[in-house]
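Action item from last meeting closed. Structure (237 res):
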């Protein structure tokens, strides 16, 4: 690769997304010094990122995760749905499972932490442009550990009260933890409409009328534990 030519014979067009202005400007400055990359814009949150992708049609988006209005996971999902030729490389502080796996399921093809150097960023961009995964060594190890870990055994239908399915029980537990429908959908990697269906089904099976009764039901059946003193409340009294 010579000068500013990427793997496609031209500079790879990149959009930078990060909610911290200083970090975002620093990444833009760094990318401007790297061969094979042309920065076409930057965004401060996921909503702006989705809008700018429609305008600039970048080849790659470097995507932060924790952002206001629309986080990086949801922005990744929207961009990949609407612009499947645009690749997403996550560039974030967080490499824990709570962010890593939802981002990959949403369509990210690369995942780097912000301590990555310029060469590692260029390599990840090249990898996703050539159809490969652009993952840092640490992320690759986490994926390998996840794949080789013993599969947890979900409770069988006979072990759950009132004919609840394992998925309905999962939804109930997340309700008891105080999660709204959108966060339940993201946690379980299902659509919001599917969450509503599960909630309607579990309400009918258990005879509860609202979320507060559902939480108390989960406590009574031992599916969830009431918060201990000093722990965040679900708001159920």
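Sequence:
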């Amino acid at each position: 690769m010579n000068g500013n030519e990427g793997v496609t014979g031209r500079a790879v067009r990149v959009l930078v997304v990060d909610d911290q202005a200083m970090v975002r400007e620093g990444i833009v400055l760094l990318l401007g010094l790297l061969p094979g990359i042309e920065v076409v814009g930057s965004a401060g949150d996921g909503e702006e990122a989705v809008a700018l992708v429609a305008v600039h049609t970048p080849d790659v988006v470097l995507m932060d995760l924790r952002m206001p209005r629309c986080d990086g996971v949801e922005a990744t999902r929207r961009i990949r749905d609407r612009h499947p030729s645009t690749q997403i490389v996550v560039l974030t502080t967080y490499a824990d499972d709570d962010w890593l796996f939802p981002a990959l399921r949403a369509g990210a093809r690369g995942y780097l932490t912000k301590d990555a150097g310029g060469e590692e960023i260029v390599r990840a961009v090249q990898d996703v442009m050539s159809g490969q995964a652009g993952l840092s060594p640490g992320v690759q190890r986490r994926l390998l550990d996840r794949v080789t870990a013993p599969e947890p055994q979900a409770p069988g239908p006979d072990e759950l009260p009132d004919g609840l399915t394992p998925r309905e029980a999962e939804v109930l537990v997340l309700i008891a933890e105080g999660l709204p429908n959108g966060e339940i959908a993201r946690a379980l990697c299902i659509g919001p409409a599917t969450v509503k269906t599960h909630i309607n089904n579990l309400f009918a099976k258990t005879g509860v009328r609202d979320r507060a009764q559902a939480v108390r039901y989960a406590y009574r059946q031992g599916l969830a534990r009431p918060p201990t003193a000093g722990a965040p409340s679900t708001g159920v009294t």
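Note appended to the action item: Residues 229-237 have pLDDT under 50 and may be disordered.
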